[in-house]
Amino acid sequence: MNCPFCGERATRVVDSRLAAEGSQVRRRRECPGCETRFTTFETAELLLPRIVKNDGTPEPFDVEKLRRGITRALYKRPVGPEAVDTAISHIQQRLRSDPERDVPSRRLGDWVMEELRDLDQVAFVRFASVYRRFEDVQAFREEIERLESAPQRDSGQLSLIDVGKENPDER
Which of 2, 61, 84, 156 is 20 to 30 Å from 168 at the Cα level? Predict the structure, then answer.
């Protein structure tokens, strides 16, 4: 790989490890010319289905468009880039396992909402408000009520409530 700083043709790999639940290889590289270090990510290039928009026109799946949408919903939320990569990886796995060659954008949007619901509830409501075209406060209220009543997957985050205490008055 060429050095992005000085253009040196040969860079050496300093460290390699798996990223995004094993769907990527993260490589730390060093340029012998300018001695700068940089990171690259390697992924398998697989043929993914086309996304059929609401007006019926198909377009190729664009992972960067997906990343922008998720990142926009997570703006100023405490979710790290690794969690975003994992969510994108889950969505891509679902796309690859879908038997259809053309996947409706609605199905893709539903998968994004499932991932966001588990990552961050505020981001989920932000995305849902655009995706489902909320037009008034009542639509927000209804979505929040659905969110509160839905069973949650374990996100790996610590509970804000100390469940170890037996008496709720001691909390």
Answer: 156
For the chain, the domain total comes to 2
Same domain? 40 vs 73: no
Helix or strand holding residue 73 (H, E): helix 63-73
Say yes or no: 35 and 65 in one domain.
Answer: no
Token pair of 15 as six digits:
């460290």
Instruction: Give pLDDT tens digits for 38-89.
Output: 999 998 766 788 999 989 999 999 999 999 999 999 998 888 889 999 999 9
With respect to residue 28, please indicate whether it lies within any of the assigned structural domains.
yes
Residue pointed to by tokens 């209804």: 142
Q: Is 128 helix (H, G, I), strand (E, B) or coil?
A: helix
The amino acid present at 151, given as its one-letter code, is P
Residue 164: strand, helix, or coil: coil
Mean pLDDT, residues 88-92 taken together: 92
Cα Rg of the chain (Å, integer): 21
Residue of higher predicted confidence among 116 and 159: 116
Residue 65 sits in the same domain as residue 14? no
Q: Which helix or strand (DSSP H or E) is residue 161 part of?
A: none
| Segments forming the whole domain that contains residue 125 | 46-149
